[in-house]
Amino acid sequence: MASLSDVQISMPSDRQVPEKEYFDYSQRAQWLRAAVLGATDGLVSVASLMMGVGAVKNDVAVMILTGFAGLVAGACSMAIGEFVSVYSQLDIEVAQMKRDKRMLDNEKNDDESEKEQLPNPFQAALASALAFSLGALVPLLAAAFIGDHKVRLIVVIAAVTFALLVFGGVGAVLGKTPALKSCARLLIGGWIAMAITFGLTKLIGSSGL
């Protein structure tokens, strides 16, 4: 006759509840921050630049050329800044690896595993430039086909508002953060930036400077 312990051992294991796979969303923080920051920066800065020009100039060609110059300059600035920042981080991590290498017994295996996780400055620079350009294209495309000056400004504001909500929502979904707060922060910040640029440029332009 089988004992109680034998019965318990022979019970099928399919009744055990599998553990849920755990994912650390903080791992996404670095590249998510760079992508959302780059796209939002391109969107808000170029839109604000175009709104500032639109405050004193009615010519669509001037607005488009100004926005395009802002796109190129901003993308280059983002790429260089991200490259320098990530390269500095790479230097720090490499120096730390060399210090750890002298202290660990299994230094060869640890060195190989850590090299796979080192940041890539060239990839970071390219990603930042592309993200900035993607955001900057929104106001450029919104204004490109509108002839009437006032309608053009309204369309740019509407397009930027929609894009800010999209960027905020995407960032919240990927990072598992509250979508309402994320969208509200981007939207209010973008509106303030465009309003300040438009108002100050209009003030300076009307003063005859």
Could you describe the 3D structure shown?
This protein is mostly helical and 209 residues long. It has one domain (36-203). Helices cover 78% and strands 0% of the residues. The longest helix is centred in the middle third of the chain and has 42 residues, at 60-101. The N and C termini lie far apart (103 Å). It is a multi-pass membrane protein. Vacuolar Fe(2+) uptake transporter. This is Vacuolar iron transporter. Belongs to the CCC1 family.
> How many structural domains can be distinguished in the coordinates?
1
| SSE class | mainly alpha
Described by the principal axes of the CA atoms, the overall outline is elongated
Distance N terminus to C terminus? 103 Å
Radius of gyration: 26 Å
Number of beta strands: 0
Separate helix tally: 7
> Low-confidence runs (pLDDT<50, min 5 residues)?
1-20, 22-27
- How does the major sheet shape up? none
Share of β-strand residues? under 5%
Mean pLDDT across the residues is: 80
Q: N-to-C SSE series?
A: HHHHHHH
Fraction of residues in helices?
over 70%
Coiled coil: 87-114
GO biological process, one term: intracellular manganese ion homeostasis
Function: Vacuolar Fe(2+) uptake transporter.
Transmembrane segments: 31-53, 60-80, 124-146, 153-174, 186-205
